[in-house]
Design a protein that fits this description.
- It is built from six helices and nine strands.
- The protein has 181 residues and is an alpha+beta fold.
- The protein has a single domain (28-180), classed as Glutaredoxin (3-Layer(aba) Sandwich), CATH 3.40.30.10.
- It has a seven-stranded mixed beta sheet with strand order 2-1-5-4-3-8-9. Strands 6-7 form a two-stranded antiparallel sheet.
- Strand 1 (41-44) and strand 2 (49-51) form a beta hairpin.
- It is globular and about 40 Å long.
């Protein structure tokens, strides 16, 4: 009998430890394709408020990324910037979201020549609602996920655990396909 009690106890402890080690985004669900995109109001790199409703009637690429000035995030941003005219031709705006401050975003945009909006989610609430938050060294960061939102405000496509290098091309191809439907 003691053997079964010990096994049950160890199984319970293992379950607690496993749960505690999960990334934060495993505890929150991403909005599903076809559902209404969660609304938000965040400060931009320009120091102004921006909300999802500001872009009604346009396609939105809402991409979450961990940190300004890091190699993967810079590569991803450069690729979106490189393709910005193609997005504009597809009636699409690019919005980047991280937990960095608006001032950090302003410096990042200036240094890297970015001409699209970066949104400051310092309390990680929007990242959490989009199931795109992770923990690193005890801090919450935005996880690298992307959402294509249609002109009516619905989630049209979701990309999880994005690889920065070819992502912009992948999103452009998906937008072209989605707009044919």
């Amino acid at each position: 009998m003691r053997k079964y009690v010990l096994i049950a106890f160890l199984a319970a402890v293992a379950g607690i430890v496993t749960w505690a080690l999960k990334p934060v985004n495993a505890l929150t669900e991403m909005p599903a394709v076809g559902s209404a995109a969660p609304t938000f109001k965040l400060t931009t790199n320009e120091g102004k408020e921006a909300s999802l409703s500001d872009f009604k009637g346009k396609w939105v690429v809402l991409y979450f990324y961990p940190k300004d000035f890091t190699s993967g995030c810079t590569l991803e941003a450069h690729n979106f910037q490189r393709d910005l005219e193609k997005y504009t031709a597809l009636n699409t705006v690019i919005l980047g979201v991280s937990v960095d401050t608006a001032d950090s975003h302003k410096e990042f945009c200036a240094k890297e020549g970015l001409n699209f909006k970066l949104l400051s989610d310092t309390d990680a609430k929007v990242s959490t609602v989009y199931g795109s938050v992770m923990e690193y060294d005890g801090s919450k960061l935005s996880a690298r996920n992307t959402f294509i939102i249609d002109p009516k405000g619905n989630i049209a496509k979701v990309y999880e655990k994005v690889k920065p290098s070819g992502h912009s091309e992948e999103v452009l191809a998906a937008l072209a396909e989605l707009q044919k439907q």
